[in-house]
Amino acid sequence: xxxxxxTQGAQVVKEGRxxxxxxxxxxxxxxxxxxxxxxxxxxxxxxTPSARNMVLRHGVDTVFLTKNGRYxxxxxxxxxxxxxxxxxxxxxxxxxxxxxxxxxxxxxxxLVNMATLLMRIKRTKNAQEAGRKARExxxxxxxxxxxxxxxxxxxxxxxxxxxxxxxxxLGFQGDAGFHRRVRRPPTDPVNAVLSLLYTFLxxxxxxxxxxxxxxxxPGFLHVxxxxxxxxxxxxxxxxxxxxxxxxxxxxxxxxxxxxxDFETRxxxxxxxxxxxxxLVPDVATDVYGLGAEGLDTDxxxxxxxxxxxxxxxxDADSRALPAVKxxxxxxxxxxxxxxxxxxAEFYYEPYAKKITLADAIIAQAGQYRKCVEGExxxxxxxxxx
Length: 385
Known about the structure:
By secondary structure, this protein is of the alpha/beta class. It is about 45% helix and about 15% strand.
């Protein structure tokens, strides 16, 4: 279970064998730590020393974010005890062939996913441009297979992402205000949701890495740098499209999020929505967001992927524009649908059975561990069929 705490001014306190989320004399939630995998704390929320000790003692991954969802840090639990596994991870950083093969598979899987989804946009929206971008993206696969270095693969990934974003915008019903990926700050509602969902996804992949006793820092596709969780970012790639981007399109195309759900520099983009609009459908039961195919509807769910949020607008340029963020009620709807998406089941070939997307994230990190330990020769990313 993953818990999101967003009540500003709230305090998490220990009471007996469980935790309470309180504000003044009001109790908002009762948390049973033995059932919690992760707690996400947003903004002005505090933990008492006894509550802090409890989450640390039970190994609950406790993550701290700004009120608007920007990652700040997390409590550090005990380091994985398998020192030989971690030593193997760091030794492999100098194994050029291992790194090249891993990056080749990650980039190839990403390109396949992007091309597949662009073709679905073409068919569903009759968007010929999306089809052209899909073909250009697939053409990059041949170059991936003969790439001689990781830098070359990064360049191919960047080119594929540029093509994909040009087609991704065509997946929205109507004008969602999205033209290109902008991160810091997000300058339109779509970019605001993408950034938030990527933060959520990052934390889930981080947890999967730690569950498998891997060190989150030594990766390959994302350059190793001081404080960068390169392995987490590498393993996120296949899930950016499957989870975050499909959900983003669903949220807008099914009108779960509308202009009035966003504000810019304290100004609402449109009028306040009626309270009745707070009740929203469950859009996450289709694990790959492919339900639009064969349905008599324009509401459509499609993903997008990038390596390190590239290509994006130059951050310095985007800072001249007003930042767009979700309002509180809409934020909660995003959280609820994100969790529903991860709870959706699909057929996972390595296990030959249905599992949830949340379990698949852990399973993929486990597959990477097998590659590190030599049990598997080649990492296989999760791809859309």
